[in-house]
Design a protein that fits this description.
Four copies of one chain form a homotetramer. Chain A has 212 residues and is mostly helical. Chain A is built from nine helices and no strands. Chain B binds a DNA duplex (21 and 21 nucleotides) through α2 and α4.
Chain lengths: 212, 212, 212, 212
DNA sequence: AATGAATGAGTTTTCATTCAT
DNA sequence: GATGAATGAAAACTCATTCAT
């Protein structure tokens, strides 16, 4: 969730009304994220979300036209945050720094602070049923584009597009599974392995750590 | 075969039209799969499923105690099939045959025969909210166990458990994403890349195919 | 339930088919009585009743056109039995024998064997909604008629009709409440008191038993 | 006043339109009473009750968690009213005033004001299946306690508890039967007879009115 | 005749959304 | 703007009844 903050707080500042509005929207989104993860989309009633945010249902509908709209916005922010995070990390990557930067990125992603795959999992199916489907589908593509850029900058010797497609799925899948289902596996060893997997696949050398 | 509680109870009586019952259960499951994928879990009402199967709601409830039970059974079958497929393929793997066998397995998985990731995606969130959660979570573990066996048989030089965990996620994620979202990418090149990824990660040599 | 047997077993004897039919009807009625009392009318499904009788629903509908029909028949038999019992007891009543006969009758009624007020209570509301309402409403009247006869035979000095109306309600109410809700009160003392109440009301002398 | 769980919870918040809520609860209870009596418990669907009250089903469920809850509340009110009435009448009874007070009480009861035995009859069976059974069973006990008090105050020479048990059933049964089934019998003569029955049973003298 | 699987109308109940205050 | 009571469409599920075997 932390991921999805930066982008926002931009416009509007003076009018206390707008400030209140913003605060309410934030409160609602955070409450919704909590309730969605805890109860699942179906059981997350708008009343419950509003209550969790400390406001009335009526107010919720003042800011979001529907329950779906909340999910869409939540997913959008989540994804934007994720893309921004990855893009920022990979901004200055090159052949030499590739390994360490990947490692750092993986560490970021594996911190529950930087990513909330449980939320993603709850939302994805619902949002895809939405008219916002189009918009949402761009997400992986945007991530891929960032990766393609990094591969190009590192002059990796493989099909950049295909590799980016694969890498996005690989990393997200492992990270999500670890964070949601196997927090026990969230260790430096895992980071090592994933780094080795990625760097090796891309074709750069990695010194193997001797097996325990 | 195991078809929820009620069906079992029904099957426990003599066996009058056991055939008809079985056919009905199959029809219901297939209809449910279709409706779940097409409409999403929420919109897939029991009435709609029954209608799609050409039977009455009452009959549906004769064989499944609830909508969730259908989802659970569907997921169970899907996963059982997947585990069986992988286990069969890897049965006689060794260091030498590792590469080709992995390649063949990937081909199988990418053929989407017997694999329906769209369905999987619709079900997973819902079923995880179910009491069947435990049973379902065992799926990845079972797959991992199979992989661990293969790694051991191939005498791979890495942490078998951790590697198995990673490989299961990696392969499933890429395969499912391709099948569901990017059928265009479903080419021999993809198989090559994935094979290379897996074999390379496990530490066996792969001859790089020259980049196009 | 025992009350409601005598009247029936009349016609038919030879044909084994009819015998089986009769047996089935009996089994169904007894099973229904049990299930109605135990579960209440609403929860007493026809399947459950059939199962309790050891037959199939289909067979149930062979003999009774509807669930209501079972209730109606049950109530009819119950009431017929009760009227018959009371009539038999009061047949030869006169001013002298009035007290002892009333006492005996009360003893009969208070034996769970002779009366099943719980069943009566479950059925009455439902059956009154039935088209059989008319027929059933005659019950109290028939009992009253019997009582009127007894009062006349005993040459009691009061409004026979009004007294009969009152006595029927009084006795049934107390008996039902005792049997259903307060079996602990089902003692000789109760019989004494009720006898005294009735005999006193009718205007005949009763020797008061000294208070404990 | 005590209006089921949800209502209480609702009432616990500030008190916005407490009035409207109360009015709605009243409307629902009255509508329910009407529908229960007219259609029977089974046919009295929550939708029908809500419609009869001129509100939506949703509102019904805002105030009552279930159909049973309505029945329970209705029965509770009915019984509370009855106990209060009897208790008020008997408050200052003594040996001398016993007869006239009983007569007045019977008149009250037979006026059917505040007494609705038809409703009572519909509800009793259903509510007894409820978890509220215990509470409801307390009703007769409370009435009996009031009667015991009256008998003691009047220094009646009999087993107070047993007599109270009997008297409660006797009076209620006759009164209810008259009101529901034989309004024609609702005459001064009936009051006389019942008074005579009660007073005679309790052991006080009653001057017999000469028979018509 | 007996069986019990199949039917589907009808019930209870929930919850996204509206709107009077 | 904020509130939360009211709405009512829609869903899950039951069970009396039918009918093919």
């Amino acid at each position: 969730m932390a991921v999805m903050v930066k982008a926002v707080r931009a416009a509007a500042r003076k009018k206390p009304k707008q400030e209140r509005s913003l605060a309410m929207v934030e409160a609602l989104l955070q409450a919704a994220a909590r309730v969605f993860v805890k109860e699942g989309y179906a059981k997350a009633t708008t009343n419950r979300i509003a209550a969790a945010a400390g406001v009335s249902v009526g107010s919720l509908y003042q800011y979001f036209p529907s329950k779906d709209a909340i999910a869409v916005e939540l997913l959008r922010r989540y994804r934007d945050g994720l893309v921004a995070l990855v893009a920022a990390r990979l901004e200055r990557v090159d052949r030499v720094s590739f390994g360490p930067i990947v490692r750092d990125l993986l560490c970021d992603l594996l911190q529950a602070e930087g990513i909330n795959p449980a939320l993603h999992r709850v939302l994805i199916e619902q949002v895809l049923r939405t008219t916002a489907r189009r918009e949402m589908l761009g997400f992986e593509e945007r991530l891929e584009a960032v990766i393609v850029g990094a591969l190009r900058a590192s002059d990796a010797d493989l099909d950049h597009e295909l590799a980016a497609f694969i890498l996005v799925r690989v990393v997200l899948a492992v990270v999500q599974s670890v964070v949601v289902d196997r927090p026990k596996l969230n260790t430096p060893d895992l980071v090592d392995e994933l780094t080795r997997l990625v760097v090796g696949y891309v074709g750069f050398d990695v010194e193997r750590r001797p097996r325990r």
